[in-house]
């Protein structure tokens, strides 16, 4: 093993252990996927020729190209995952904003406020009605 | 609307019309519309409808200006999008016991005088939803690119939902209470208009298209969505299907 391998392999092994532990405890599939990525990285660093052999088998050419393509695919997957997270978070933010807006309706000038109830008032009425 | 003031100030209004107006709520989503909203509300308030304005996190005086009129004003603390604001307004109207809910643009593109023709088929119970159609009615000064985009959108909607419509993405529509309760508006931004049509098809609701007038002005065109926004809307609809 060369110096680079001595430096990187222990780090990757630690990461693999951390991800595997998290997967076992929390059953998060993403953790398992990350474990596989670290493991593949460790194998390719330990056996550099393996990438070239795989590349030839797939008809890609050089091992570095294979790694580059794999990296691009991983990046797209990560972006897709992050977009999904952002999408869900945005939806949660909308729900929060909606609740706040419904909790504090403002009556414009000349409006009969008594004819309309706020959400909290309606909830209170429903609770009282349910209790009777 | 203020029931007492309406009955005491206008005795010529029939009980039937009064009941009709009290059952109808107009929902307006407004984002940075401080100038145009006043004109829109001035027209609407003379008609006597219940009105709720949802200020979608505006940075100008939209919220304060809306409060100068006899309307209810809700405020999103941050900008969430037109679809989200309409959903908030619809939820509020439902809480107040609305029988019919009309969605109306804040920028003065729609005509308040056309609300009765839109709500009539819903109030009579003939349909669940009445959709305004500018191509059955009048589209004043519509740019050719906008017209082309809308025509493509109509074909896209026919393919995806099966609805044979003459107009899409028209914000002037009326829902029955039942329809407003069960139609799910999850898209917070402009894609909500397509989502509503998909929901109408999915839930097999009865609908009718009503001729309406849309007036295009330079300032509303500059602020409104661009014709290329159609691609963005398609992307949002796709994302909404993946992350439900």
Question: What would the keywords be for this entry?
Answer:
heterodimer; A: 132 residues; mainly alpha; B: 244 residues; alpha/beta; Spore Coat Polysaccharide Biosynthesis Protein SpsA, Chain A; 7-stranded mixed sheet; 11 helices; 45% helix
Number of helices of chain A: 5
* Largest interface chains and counts: A-B, 27 and 36 residues
> How large a portion of the residues of chain B is in β-strands, by DSSP E?
15-25%
Total beta-strand segments of chain A:
1
Number of helices of chain B: 11
Computed Rg of chain B: 17 Å
Radius of gyration of chain A: 28 Å
Question: Termini distance of chain A?
Answer: 79 Å
Any idea what the shape of chain A is? elongated
Helix percent band of chain B: 40-55%
Spatial gap, N to C terminus of chain B: 37 Å
User: What are the secondary-structure elements of chain A, in order, as H or E?
Assistant: HHHHEH
Q: How many domains in all of chain B?
A: 1
Summarize the helix and strand pattern of chain B as letters: HHEHEHEHEHEHEHHEHH
Protein model, in words:
The complex is a heterodimer of chains A (132) and B (244). Chain A is an all-alpha fold and 132 residues long. Chain A is elongated and about 80 Å long. Chain A has one domain (8-103). Chain A has helices spanning 3-26, 29-46, 48-58, 63-103, 119-131, and one strand spanning 106-107. Chain A contains five helices and one strand, in the order ααααβα. With 244 residues, chain B is α/β, with parallel strands linked by helices. Chain B has a single domain, classed as Spore Coat Polysaccharide Biosynthesis Protein SpsA, Chain A, CATH 3.90.550.10. Chain B has helices at residues 3-9, 15-23, 34-45, 62-66, 82-95, 115-123, 144-161, 177-182, 192-202, 218-223, 229-242, and strands spanning 24-30, 50-56, 72-76, 100-105, 129-140, 173-176, 207-215. The longest helix of chain B has 18 residues, at 144-161. Classes of the chains: A mainly alpha (132), B alpha/beta (244). The interface between A and B is medium-sized, with 27 and 36 residues. Strand 1 (106-107) of chain A pairs antiparallel with strand 3 of chain B, so a sheet runs across the interface.
